[in-house]
Specification:
This protein has 225 residues and is mostly helical. 68% of the residues lie in helices and 0% in strands. It is elongated and about 85 Å long.
């Protein structure tokens, strides 16, 4: 009796023999794949961010507001040094007038090193002016930025040097070389104030309105000049 193939005999798996509908049911439409959706969302977020960050023309009112904000911050930061300079020159006048008692002299010699510090790069005000203050970069703002640089010179170079001279002269009265240097530093303080105010006036003219004033003092002439 001859053997015949059983109807249950093993038939090798052939994907090509599967119905088309069976294969297509296993596929996911490309734009529904998770990575496509995530990429699409990220692209939209980036596009919105770029559009939002694009520069826009600055209006005059925005420019005025920004420059006044910078001037307000400058005045806040220079206030301790302005007070220190005025105080130091007051001490010098008292010394020349002979009104400093030994007790007052002791106080003065305590205050003057502190006055010197608040006009130096070690002060919080100077740190804010040179590291944190960002002036809006418009035509008017360029002048405010120049003003800022002059103010830094007024504080650390002019004011600081004047206080050092005063501290020496109070303890060594009549030193001709130091007196001459103090006069020179006061001239620098006066000239740099004028330069800074010139930049402020230029910025104000550009904007067509007067910006906040710069609170640098007018110093009285030294005794004997």
């Amino acid at each position: 009796m001859t053997n015949q193939d059983s109807p249950n005999a093993h038939v090798p798996y052939d994907p090509a023999s599967m119905a088309t509908s069976s294969l297509s049911s296993q596929k996911v439409i490309w734009y529904r794949r998770p990575w496509v959706l995530i990429t699409f969302v990220v692209a939209i977020v980036v596009a919105v961010s770029v559009i939002t960050d694009l520069p826009h023309p600055i209006s005059k009112s925005e420019d005025v507001s920004a420059q006044n904000a910078s001037m307000k911050q400058i005045n806040t930061d220079i206030a301790p040094c302005v007070y220190a300079v005025k105080e130091a020159f007051g001490f010098y006048r008292n010394s020349v007038a002979g009104t400093l008692t030994p007790q007052k002299l002791k106080v003065v010699n305590t205050y003057l090193p502190n006055d010197q510090t608040v006009c130096s790069f070690a002060s919080a005000g100077m740190s804010d002016l040179t590291n944190n203050l960002q002036v809006l970069d418009t035509t008017a703002g360029k002048n405010i930025d120049k003003l800022l640089k002059v103010v830094v010179t007024w504080m650390d170079s002019d004011g600081n040097a004047a206080i050092v001279d005063i501290e020496y002269l109070i303890n060594h009265p009549g030193d001709a070389k130091k007196i001459a240097d103090l006069r020179k530093q006061q001239n620098y303080l006066t000239k740099d104030r004028e330069i800074a105010i010139g930049y402020l006036n230029t910025a104000s003219a550009i904007l067509g309105t007067q910006l906040y004033s710069l609170n640098l003092p007018v110093l009285a002439p030294l005794p004997g000049t």
